[in-house]
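quick one before i forget lol
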Amino acid sequence: MEEILNLLRADARISAEDIAVMTKKTPEQVRAIIQKFEKDGVILKYSAIVNPEKINGQGASVRAEIEIQVTPEREHGFDALAERIYRFPQVRALYLMSGGYDLKVVIEGESLQDVAFFVARKLSTIEGVRSTKTHFILKTYKENDVVYVSEKTDGREGVTA
């Protein structure tokens, strides 16, 4: 079953027939396993990974990672604050962290001002948020196991003796 998940992580468009060949199962067994993963919430979503630099300005956005220090709520801990934050449409990811801050949020906006407005007017005004530190993402080299930059190859031939 882990093998099927790994194949889907590498390529969500792989067919049940191809997975069956690779795992020595029947396509029907593979489909049943995938349906169970979907029903049980193991597989939450299938999506495409898009290189934003290849869009040529269409739909280009500004991404930022924000470190947040919070005061956990009594009886709810970090969960209630996290829920308030992840419900904003700008939020792409939210993580509970160890170390110097409590939460890390990845957001997307149309401009630097849009991100700044979100931090100043939405995020920092939530009760329990003590401080924020914003880091703008300037360039993505690798994400989700995908290398975004073209790997340069040396055109010279190797010499053997």
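fyi The chain has two domains: 2-39, 54-139.
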